[in-house]
Amino acid sequence: MDREGYYCTSCTADNARRGTETYHLKKSLNICPGCGKYSVPESETYCPECRAKSANWHAKYYAENKEKVLDANKKSSKKRKQRLAEQGLCVRCGKRATADGAKECRICREKQNEQRKENYQHGNRNWMEDKFKRGICRWCDKPIDEGQVFCPECYEKVKKNMRKAYEASPWSKNMCLIFERGKENEQCDKEKKI
């Protein structure tokens, strides 16, 4: 055996070739390539029954392997964007060349700006306020205590990230010197301990 699996490389290639030929034959006759039972209109590829089976299978697979699917999608998207950026094409549409050193073409940037304006005008800017009113965390949608914005777990994450940002920022390290002109300050000492 020249590969892992049930069939050798030549048998696998033959099966793939036969499957492709059968698919195109059924499609040219307007028969569902999945089951081969029902006729389908030219605008469709599969019959409703096969589409429903496929949708159920994909939903079940996604539910069981969500992390794996999301990780694969993320990697694939990243590779695609890198490939398009190297070729000098828009990372959104992949059709037009980019300009001004941007990653997107002018048309895609305009569409994105229009979408952002529309979302802003339709009130989508208030999603944080809506979550607060409903009593759920901004990040994970878990219940929050009254008057809080984050759940306890997310609050700890935010605190940890704020501490990291404070330690990494040269501006925050010298903040006491800037505002107090070199004088030591109790408030600055408290902020350092955050």
Question: In whole angstroms, how far apart are the ends?
Answer: 63 Å
- Strand % is under 5%
* Number of beta strands: 0
Could you give a short account of the major beta sheet?
A: none
Mean of all residue-level pLDDT scores: 81
Per DSSP, the total helix count is 9
Work out the radius of gyration.
28 Å
Structural class assignment? mainly alpha
Q: What are the low-pLDDT stretches, counting only 5+ consecutive residues below 50?
A: 178-185
Secondary-structure element series:
HHHHHHHHH
**Helix content estimate:** 55-70%
Dominant shape = extended
What would you say this structure looks like, in words?
There is one protein chain. The chain has 194 residues and is mainly α. Among the domains are: 1-64, no CATH class; 135-192, no CATH class. It contains nine helices and no strands. The longest helix is centred in the middle third of the chain and has 22 residues, at 66-87. The radius of gyration is 28 Å and the shape is extended. The protein starts with 8 loop residues before the first helix and ends with a helix. The relative contact order is 0.03.
Salient structural properties:
194 residues; mainly alpha; 0% strand
